[in-house]
Amino acid sequence: MNIGSKPESTYFTLDVLGRYICNTFDEALANSDPTTRAAAGLPPRSDMQPFDFIVIGGGTFGGALAEHLWFRSTGSSKRILVLEAGPFLIPEHQQNLPTLGLGGEVWGVPWNSNVSSTGLAYCVGGLSIWWGGWATRLLDSETPASVWPPTVLKELNDKKLSNGDNGYFRQSGQQLGVTTTNDFIFGDLHAALREQLYKALDSRKVAEATPLASLPDAPPVEILDTAPALTELAALLGASLPNPLPSTPAALAQLEQEFRNKLKLEAPLAVQARPEHAGFFPMNKFSTVPLLIKAARGASRESNGDDVRKRFMIVPRCHVKRLDVKSEPGGKRVTAIQTQRGEFPVASGCKIIIAQGAIESTRLALLSFGEDGRIGSNLMAHLRSNIDFQIPRTALTGLSPTIKALQSSALLVRGQHKFKKPDGTDDGTVGHFHLQITASGLGNAANPDSEVELFQTVPDMDTVKQHLLATDSKIVITIRGIGEMQPDNPNSNVTLDLDPNEVDYGERKAYVNLKLTVKDQQLWDAMDAASDELAVALANGGKVDIISRNPTTQIVERNVDATGLTTALPYRIPSTANDAGRRDGLGTTYHEAGTLRMGDDSSKSVTDANGKFHGVKNAYAVGLSVFPTVGSPNPMLTGIALARRLGDHLTPRGPTAPPPASNASGSPTASPPAPDTSGPADQ
């Protein structure tokens, strides 16, 4: 048995981080199960307890939930175990570190599909180490009350919960850092591009852009419990108040609304460059790895290195194959977890939370609970397109010619498309999309430091090569369109592969069917058209250079009208290496969702409003799999909100306990943590 091993030394490194943060499978068993402890030759302990919560998947949402469970149970003896299929890789988001150029070291595709897929990041923290950081909030129209449980919608959207805590969208925004988004992206380029974008939308140059006045306030405004003064709005924008101020109440109100609307264009990025409280470091770009490290080391400190009393353990490189289930009066119960390292028993009071990503979570549910016609249905993902082009800096009328420093900008435009009947009239329904605008320029990008700077400032790392084409006279702009797919498509689902030879760790692989509906195709076309309209508006009558991503990043047309984007970058998924199609493949957006959808009606959903599987007493799901609809935003904000909500449900706080404050990571804390003087995780 591997119990109490020291940090391993490789040819290059001493694995201190992995050993201090993680436990082995044998350590978790021997310090929670008396039979295994006896077999290991360890002395019996009368104070040994089984784990109260076992989280399967230590990636984005499993990691966030596990840390929240650990904090919520502070002062109790409740124990949390995280089983992660991959290794410990790096301690935070890779953009918080010097440029590593991480490749495919931990990526894998464990399923088969009718479309190509990027698969999963098998490591502690999962995809949160790579994600772009856009954390946009779902609109009410993207979460229809006819399919989302009303209690969930209320608690997501409310400013305050009944216990005095912030609503879950607010909590999630604070944890991610989007409530202070303007502390990261600012400067002359950003201000000039935002002003030009605002004027373009105000004059309806992007026909299906959602009017700014109809959108909710930007996160830094919405999070405020009192209405902000005009000076506060100006500070959030990084703008100056006009001098003199308007003299009439109506004109002042108009100026306030203009400031609010301009703030709605700010990219809601999960980057915290300034701490919320004195004495803390800012977390920079959000990842769940620091949360897991905090919980693991905090638990080690609490127990003085005694694994029997330690409340939180992470076991890496542990693939969960299936769950053993027993039928009981009132429903089924998970009794054991089968892994490639052996069986892990589940105590009668233990809760199992499946957090492996939508497809693998669905596969585990199908293997463990059986096929019922609901598990695996409602599969959705995102429609995604990209256009890259250069504009002359003179196209931005508000940009001073004296500015030379390399700068970046990130802005957001939301849109709605009205679906049509075959006769061309509106059918009364809409589809949602949004456009993520990233710009870089004003410096000499041939400078060797440019890539380093852009790597840490451009939200989407896969656009760095395009933005290196920026010069002191040209600004590179990327418009990434992301649209929702329709729910309840009978042709999109996750099943078990019918070929018995297609297995992963001895169990049948999942098979993914992901197909477009007629409405999906309509929305994708409309979104691409909106991107082109926006490009024309930003070019402001000037010529552009069009950049293609295939087969390599290169300028394919120079000094042409911006309207040429429509033909130079066609509305299609590339079919060959040289195809300049702007669309990404359906399986490449990382955002599969909906296959374990939550709902109050057990005949139409897989999990209840808290994510508990209907008919299973102690099994829950968290993450995109439980979304009834996917909307157009990156699912991070909603997924973290639902993870925090589930954590609160599983560890209810007494009615007289006050709501905790928040620290720089967004997780509640009563005071700054004490210094960590404990040793490795196995002590």
Automatic annotation (TrEMBL):
* Molecular function per GO: oxidoreductase activity, acting on CH-OH group of donors
Q: Which cofactor does it need?
A: FAD
Tell me, what's a Pfam family for it?
A: GMC_oxred_C
Boundaries of each Glucose-methanol-choline oxidoreductase C-terminal domain copy? 524-643
Where do the record's region annotations for Disordered lie? 647-683
**TM regions (residue ranges):** none
Asked if the record carries the keyword Flavoprotein, the reply is yes
Signal peptide span per the entry?
none
* Superkingdom of the organism of origin: Eukaryota
Keywords carried by this UniProt record? FAD, Flavoprotein, Oxidoreductase
Q: Does the keyword Flavoprotein apply?
A: yes
Q: Which family does it belong to?
A: Belongs to the GMC oxidoreductase family.
- What's the protein name? Glucose-methanol-choline oxidoreductase C-terminal domain-containing protein
